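Sequence in, structure out. Go.
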Amino acid sequence: CYIERPNFGRDFGSYKTGFLHIFKNNWQESCPRLLMINDSVFFSAERMPKFLNDMMTSEIEVLGSTENYEIEYHLGSFCIAMSQSVLKKPIFQKYWKNYRLTDVRPRVIKRGEMKLSKTLKKCISSPTQFRALYCSSFFLRKLNEDPALLNFVVSNSRTSDLTDWERFSANSLVEFLHERFLYPVNMVDSSSNTDFQVNVELEAVNEEHVIHDVITLKKYIFRHVKSDEYTNSNIFDDSIVSVMAQVFMNGSQIHQNASSLLYLGLPIVKLDGMYRGMFNVYDIQRISRLLETVEADQLQQILMERPFGGSTLIGWRKAAFMSGLI
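Output:
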């Protein structure tokens, strides 16, 4: 069924029209499982069959593709599968009948994304029936199981600095270690007048190395940390995994971890990644390398036709964008 409607209310305006059409025709009585999804995403055809099968054959009553930790925890509303038991719940039907349309982005997030998750939680039979397919615990488990994923995250984590979400880096790992496990072997009082002589070659001072996997990452750590035979290597291994998982949980997972999620099998890339400042050109290149050539070209064109709004918009539009209104 194709429904054409005025473009008002963003994605939740269309969602409301769709669900009200379902309820009007009483289709919730015969629909075993429903997938709600919007057009704000790019799909990889190669990964799509398995993803749809995972979403639509799952026994989980409410299954999102990814989570979102921004403002408060909720499922990413661009893609959620739900069982018939949820569709038939009066509280779920009431939510859509009472939903007030708006084009103001913060209100859509509050009334739509976050309130929808709260409503869905009231429709499930137990707390275990509300989760995301590519959730943070899944990512943590994969990090501990797959050394190749560790190497991938080191060289493919998001690099854009246009948002204040935490990013994985060698320095962030060293900071984590310093705060928790490292202490100085020789404490030097900076207020003392003691003179020190350091013998070091200039080339060694200026030496720099490219960090592209866990091995080179550990070499960087060891350059900053004096380890000996008593050092427990598990501290470094667990710290790397922990910092990666903590960064994964920042903000919207689909934006924060686009390349890692593609690597793991999620076929979706959000089309506003560059516009919102989540991606830069380097990030887009890393994402594109995971796709077939034709799809990579298509994705790059779509993303780069919507450059960062904070750099391209002017006047009231820029002010509204930077405050999150549009």
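Check: DSSP finds 17 helices and eight strands in the chain. The radius of gyration is 24 Å.
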